[in-house]
Specification:
By secondary structure, the chain is of the alpha+beta class. Helix content is 41%, strand content 19%. α3 (89-110) runs antiparallel to α16 and α7 packs across α9. It is elongated, with a radius of gyration of 33 Å. The chain crosses the membrane at residues 42-62, 89-110, 163-181, 193-214, 338-356.
């Protein structure tokens, strides 16, 4: 006999009332309503700062070059006064790991606030929704425009919207590519239609990506394409701050007049106005509980607080809260997982700063000539090497080239070189054996390059000297 799992009815639907589904479940376009409030202002301030940082930094100069530039041709990454070389990319990898741990820490503490306030997808989506409001009107006007037949008015409004979307996308594509190609040259070539095919492709690619992601896909990127939405809930605990609806205070929901005692009528504080649903960029109903689609942007909090103010009820029916707090307990801010992430984050940040400060600004690589050895005019056994010396600083320097603990070897040829800022020098040198016989067929030899004005700045590298045992 098959064992049956008992079912429990958690809610009874009133057949006399229409079934209302949030936009996320209806599958159509999501038209958000305008609103004001604290979290909207925080998001506007944060988004404005990020836009200024992204679009403005590309136009800053540092001396005679662009302040922040990834020069792919020269294989250098300029960050104001610092130059990151391919040998330093491990530091950039470490920085990405630090950012990941920072995201984990924020998620454990306050849920998905990264998505709601600083994620580029969310930031550009809010900008594109603003463009919709400017060209097509507020929520009700846009819904009516969607349902209306095509006309000159509808065509003009839609054309203006998509034109504004493409303009924002194009400026984004130009700016992004401008971090890899000097942006002033890029804009000049674009205006004069002299843009190279490869550069034009990438500008078009990022323009199209911005236009599609923020204009058409929107919440689908956050819900279906972003991996963070899939694993972020694993890091939640009962003390994580998430956007929550206080059902104990809000139920039973229903409309009422402002001057009645709703508690005496068996009603909670929720007037079932659905404004919290209308402002949600992903179209969910926060009253249904924590959901995968929620970005923790706080839009529903601002909208609900505005309604509570009009009704004369206390704010916070929808608020950032934890599972413990909603159950009548107290949110624990200091807990093992959060403290562990914070400790790891501090340790990694300190290690990164130390590694950045201690990174060598002088690089030496040695390549031995493919020939084993040769005999010079003085009758000595000689090996040929190529020294690749890189001046990673932003100033020119003179360097002395020598052998470290030379022993039976002597360096022949150039002993001092001048390198400009960021210059790479390929220097051929020879090393001769001063004794008649070698102690071994292969012996280690150590090269040293030292800055003349500051001898403490030096670097050494090891190679091999090959010689015959008998002559």
């Amino acid at each position: 006999m098959t064992e049956r799992i008992p079912a429990k009815i958690v809610e009874t639907l009133d057949p006399s009332q229409p079934l209302r589904l949030p936009p996320a479940q209806l599958g159509g376009p999501i038209h958000t309503r305008s609103f004001t409030g604290l979290f909207r202002n925080l998001r506007l301030f944060g988004s404005g700062f990020l836009f200024l940082l992204f679009f403005g930094t590309a136009w800053l100069n540092w001396g005679d070059r662009q302040a922040v530039l990834w020069d792919l041709a020269e294989r250098k990454f300029y960050i104001f006064g610092a130059t990151v070389w391919p040998q330093d990319l491990i530091l950039l990898s470490a920085l990405l790991i630090i950012c990941a741990f920072g995201l984990f820490f924020i998620t454990v503490f306050a849920g998905r606030v990264w998505c709601g306030y600083t994620c580029p997808q969310s930031v550009f989506t809010w900008v594109f929704m603003w463009a919709e409001k400017v060209t097509e009107g507020d929520r009700n006007q846009r819904i009516k425009l969607d349902a209306a037949p095509w006309s000159i008015n509808k065509l003009l409004r839609r054309s203006a919207k998509h034109g504004l979307w493409l303009a924002i996308g194009l400026s984004t594509g130009i700016t992004f590519v401008g971090y890899f190609t000097p942006i002033r040259e890029l804009v000049s070539e674009l205006v004069t239609l002299q843009l190279g095919l490869t550069t034009a492709f990438w500008v078009a690619f990022f323009t199209t990506a911005t236009y599609l992601n923020a204009g058409w896909l929107r919440e689908k990127v956050c819900r279906d394409m972003c991996p963070y939405s899939r694993f972020q809930s694993v890091m939640f605990d009962a003390d994580t701050l998430v956007v929550s609806y206080d059902a104990a205070r809000g139920e039973a929901r229903g409309p009422r007049r402002k001057d009645i005692d709703h508690r005496a009528s068996g009603l909670g504080d929720c007037i079932d106005c659905t404004i919290c649903v209308q402002v949600c960029p992903t179209g969910i109903d926060i009253r249904d509980g924590l959901q995968l689609d929620c970005l923790s942007c706080g839009a529903c909090i601002d909208a609900c607080d505005e309604v509570m103010d009009k009704m004369g009820y206390p704010r916070g029916l929808v608020r950032y809260s934890s599972e413990h707090a909603l159950a009548g307990g107290k949110t624990r801010l200091l807990r093992p997982r959060l403290v562990g992430y914070a400790a790891m984050l501090l340790v990694m940040c300190a290690a990164f700063v130390w590694a950045w400060q201690a990174r060598p600004l002088l690089s030496l690589d040695i390549t031995k000539d493919r020939g084993l050895y040769r005999e010079n005019t003085a009758g000595q056994i000689e090996n040929i090497y190529r020294l690749k010396i890189i001046n990673k600083t932003q100033q020119p320097h003179r360097y002395a080239v020598s052998l470290l603990e030379p022993g039976p070897f002597v360096l022949q040829g150039t002993r001092e070189v001048q390198l400009n800022a960021g210059e790479i020098l390929d220097l051929p040198v020879s090393v001769a054996l001063t004794t008649e016989r070698a102690a071994s067929p292969t012996q280690p030899v150590y090269f040293q390059v030292m800055e003349v004005d500051q001898p403490e700045h030096k670097v050494s590298a090891k190679s091999t000297f090959v010689a015959p045992m008998h002559r």
